[in-house]
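Our consortium's second objective concerns turning raw sequence data into structural hypotheses that experimental partners can test. To show how far this objective has progressed, the report includes one record in full. It was chosen at random from the queue rather than selected for favorable results. The single chain below, 525 residues long, was entered without modification.
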Amino acid sequence: MKVSTVEQMRALDQNAIKTYGIKDELLMENAGLATFSVIQSEYGIAGRRFVIFCGVGNNGGDGFVVARKINSNGGTVKLYVLGNPDKFTGAARMNLDIARRIDIEMATIADTAGMDSVRMDILHADAVVDAVFGTGLDREVGGIYASAIELINQSEKTVFSVDIPSGVNGNTGRIMGHAVRADYTVTFGLPKIGNMLYPGHELCGRLYVTHISFPPVMYEALKIQTNEPIKLPARTRDGHKGTFGQTLFIAGASGYYGAPYFAAESFLKAGGGYSRLASPEAVTPFLANKGSEIVFIPQKETASGSIALANKPCLAEVAENMDMIVMGPGLSLNEETQQLVRELTETIRKPVLIDGDGITAVCKDLDIIRQRRSPTILTPHIGEMSRITGLTTDEINTDKINILQRTAGDLNAIIVLKGAHSLIGYPDGQVYINMSGNPGMATAGSGDVLTGTIAAMFGLGLTIEEAVRKGVFIHGLSGDLAAGELGEDGITAQDILDYLPGAVKTDRSGLDENFLKRYAGVRVV
C-alpha cells in the first residue's frame, strides 16, 4: 500500500481534476460515500442517531455528504458546523446547500458557550462522525475545536473519523494539542503518513482507505509504502550450512553477555546456516555455555575487557570469507574498540550491518560510511539517529520520514529507524513502514535479535534490500507470536528469539487473514 504526504495528496487531487477531469465534486462524493459505506457495514444506519461535527473546510464538506447518505438510508442526523459557514466554498459549499435544502437538522457553533446543547445531543446519539479537520492541520487545536474534540472523546460513543482523526498532523502522526480518538477512520486517495505513524495510527482505530477514483498510475512513483511480506526462497533440499549464509558477528565486552548471544543465535534461529562470533576471550566461555551452536573466535582484550584494535588483521581476514558482517551489539564505548569498528568498516568489502555501540563509533566519522562501495545497513533507535544526524529527537519525530530519506541518501546506506512501526529507508528515497510488532518488544536485547534476523534473511537468498525488509518483518512477527502466547507484558529478547522459527514457518506457510489485515495496516473500501 502506497502512503503519501499531505502535499503529495494535494498534488494528486489536482492531477485527478486537471489531467483526468475527475471533478472536485465527484472526489468529495466518493469520499463521503466510502465513509458512509464503512459506517453502514461496521455499525448500521437505519433507526440510529448520529451527530456529525463539520469544520469549515473540505473535511466538513465530506461530512455533509455523509449526513446526506445517512439521512437517505433511514438514519437520523444532527449536524454541527464549527465556525462560520460563510467560509465554505466550491464542492463543500455545494454540499452544505444540499444539506440545508433537504432539511437536515443543523446548528452553528461560534464559541464554547454553544457547547452545552451539543452535550445533550451526543448523550442521546448512537454514534459520532468527526469531520472537523482534515490532514492539513498544522497548528495547535484550541477554542471550540478543542472543546468539541474533548466532548467526542468523553462521550464513549462509537466514533468515525473522516480522512484522519481531527487534531492529528497528517505528515507526522503527532497530536496537535487535542485529537479525536476514533474507532474507525476512512482516509481518502491513499493513507497519509499521519494515519500510519504513532500516535496517529492508534487514534485512527480500524483504518480504511478509498481511492476515490484515482487511476493507479497516479501514485506509482510515490516512494513511501507499507512493508508487505516478501516471499522467501525455497530452502534447498541438499543444502549445507554454507548454503544458508555465513555471518561474522563482532560483538560483546566485559559485562555485555546478552547482546552478542542474541545477535549470533538469532541468525541461526531465523534460518541462517553458519554463525561466527568474535567476542573478548574472557566472555567467550560464558557465551559458549548459552549458545553452543555458534562458532566462537575469542579476541584479545583491552584493559576494560572489550575487543582490542590488535585483532583487526584477523577479523578482516575472516570477514573476507563471510557473506555479511554484523558489528556493534554490546561492544562498549571503549575508544580503542570504537576505533576498531571504524577501521574495519573502512576495510571490509562485504555487506556490513552496524548496530548499537558500532553506530556510536561511526558517528565520529560518517565519511567512512559514505565512501563504502559495499552495502551498509544501520539500525539505529531514535537516540542513535539523533547522533547520526546531529538533530534532536524532537526534530526527528516531527519529520521522521523526510529525515530518514535525506540521511539514507547522504550516507548511501540502508537505515532501519527502529521504533513503533519501524521505518526502512533506502538511498534512492524509498521508505517502507513496517506494521508487524507490538509494544511488548520494547525490551533490552530486542534490537540485537533484529540484527541476526536481517543477516539470516540475506543468508536464505534474498537481496540485501529485500533481506532488510524481510528481517524487520519477521522480527516483528516473532514478537507478535510471542505476545499471542504470553501477552505483551514481560516479553524478553529470549522470547522473541525463541519464536523466530515459528515466525519463519508461519510466513512460509502463508499468513492467515487476521495477520494479513493487520500487516496491511489499512483495509480498502
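The partners drew two points from this record. The chain has two domains: 2-221, 242-510. Residues 2-221 form a domain with the Rossmann fold fold (CATH 3.40.50.10260). Both points have been shared with the crystallography group to help prioritize constructs.
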